[in-house]
Every structure is written in structure tokens, then in C-alpha cells.
Design goal:
Layout lengths: L11 H10 L1 E6 L1 E2 L9 E2 L7 E7 L26 E4 L14 E4 L5 E9 L5 E7 L2
Antiparallel strand pairs: 1-4, 1-6, 2-3, 4-5, 5-8, 6-7, 7-8
């Protein structure tokens, strides 16, 4: 049974939040297939395993005007912007990259990592797309 790196051991404010909010995910590394225009395949050169992260799924604010014609009302839409945040020092054995899949242990949902970027504090943020 693999050891799950715990975010509760993270330092500072992020560690305090992680102690309450962190949940377990399973990393499924992916890479581009050898044949163009085919689905990604499992990347066996990287470790697939569990890790802990904080999951966010806030509603986005619509960023469109009501209408160009002031007499016509066009309602905006709010779309979700799901993401996870994790401390890279707590998951040193994992190489998390864009296009990887992660499975949420809590509910079994699978997400594709769309992009990864760092906050000023060094915490990594991975933007997610729901797969199923």
C-alpha cells in the first residue's frame, strides 16, 4: 500500500487549511500517443499514485455585457472553474503535468489537468476539466 503524502504536514496558513480541507486524489499520468489525433495514453515512465490536495469548485462571474442593444436583455451564464491546490514539497515523488488525469477518491470523479501554475507562495494550482 503506497504512502499518501499528507498536506497536513505543510507549513504556514496553507498547512492549516489543508489540515481541514485536503482530500485524496489518485494521479494517472498521461502522455501523447505515438499516432497523431488519437487519445493520450498512460505514461508508464512516471509514478501513478495517491496524493492530497485542496479541491475548489467556485462559480465564475459572467464576464459579458447584457446586450449590445439596450432594449434586449441577454442573461449571462456562470460556469464553474474547478481547481486543486497542493504543496509541491509534499508530493516530491509525483510529477504532475498538464493533460494528466486525477481521480477524486471522495466521489470517484475523474478530472483532466488543463494547466498548472504557481502562486506567489509557492503553492501549485492545477486548473481542471471534468471527464466523468
Amino acid at each position: 500500500m503506497p504512502v499518501i503524502p499528507l498536506l497536513t504536514e505543510a507549513k504556514g496558513a496553507f498547512g492549516a487549511v489543508a489540515a481541514v480541507m485536503a482530500e485524496t486524489f489518485m494521479l494517472l499520468p498521461r502522455m501523447a500517443a505515438a499516432v497523431p489525433n488519437t487519445p493520450d495514453v498512460l505514461d508508464t515512465s512516471r509514478y501513478a499514485g495517491p496524493f492530497q490536495a485542496i479541491f475548489f469548485n467556485p462559480a465564475a462571474q459572467p464576464d459579458i455585457p447584457n446586450s449590445y442593444d439596450k432594449q434586449v436583455f441577454r442573461p449571462g451564464t456562470a460556469a464553474s472553474k474547478p481547481r486543486i491546490e497542493f504543496d509541491p514539497l509534499q508530493i516530491q515523488n509525483l510529477d504532475i503535468q498538464a493533460k494528466d488525469l486525477i481521480t477524486q477518491s471522495l466521489n470517484g470523479l475523474t478530472w483532466r489537468i488543463a494547466a498548472i501554475h504557481a502562486k506567489k507562495t509557492g503553492i501549485l494550482v492545477a486548473d481542471l476539466n471534468l471527464i466523468g
